[in-house]
Amino acid sequence: MDLLANVIVTTSIYALVAVGLTTIYGVLRVLHIAHAGVYAIGGFAALLAYRSSGGFWLSLLAAMLASAVAGLAIYYGLYRPLLDSPRSVPLLASIGAFIAIEALLQRPFLLGPSPESLPAESGIPAPRLGELAFTSIQATIILLTVLAVVGVYLLIRRTRLGLAWRAITQDRLMAASSGVNLDTAIAANFLIGSALAGAAAMLWAVYTNTVQAIAGGVISYKAFVIVVLGGLGSVPGAALASLVLATVEVLATRYIGTLLPRDAIAFLVLIAVLMLRPEGLIGRRSA
Known about the structure:
By secondary structure, the protein is an all-alpha fold. It has helices spanning 2-28, 35-53, 56-79, 88-105, 136-158, 160-170, 172-177, 182-208, 215-230, 235-256, 262-276, and strands at residues 128-129, 132-133. Helix 2 runs parallel beside helix 4 and helix 6 crosses helix 8 (182-208).
């Protein structure tokens, strides 16, 4: 039962990061490496807010706002001038942005090189379903993830903004000629995707009681694995791939953890899926 609870919580965190990342890729068709830096900024903002207020929900809001602002800054300052460049150009720029953000956060006057603790409590009751018991923070993570993933999916499928995103995914120039405001639609996409990364950073920091300047690296690389596994640009695929990866990771760590480090398992799963089903678990799509 503890393993099952761990699988569900890990799936939730991975899904929050990957869904935001896959929506950005679906619209912009750029591997947004700087998403890892946006994630780290969210954790830093949550730590500052918690030290000031001691409140869980205010810290969560601060993390989402800080990551959303960082995402918009990256779009307007980095990607927007490079929209018509070959895809390798914004990719290289994104890698540089991530390295710069991570190095900056490790400075002593910001987060620093050492881990910090974030022992926030959400106040949500700890539920129990038969023999399956969740802590308060586990229940909070699961609840917020379900709301976020379902909300993003409905946004894409049922709103004019989602329709604009899907049109941009199919043909950016045709979408613009049909009246879609490209700048507004893409900025909104970065805003929402980056806010999800900030939420994931804060929730994972509370769950592990650890905030690090380098925290965005590993979990965001796993998010890229999930995006590929689920089918590039697919929100349901990202959710399914998050479940698959979390299940394999948790079980493998439990039973063969002495043979392989946990972080290596994600990439072994990626290799296996690409060999057996290169289009991903669901396939490449825009939502």
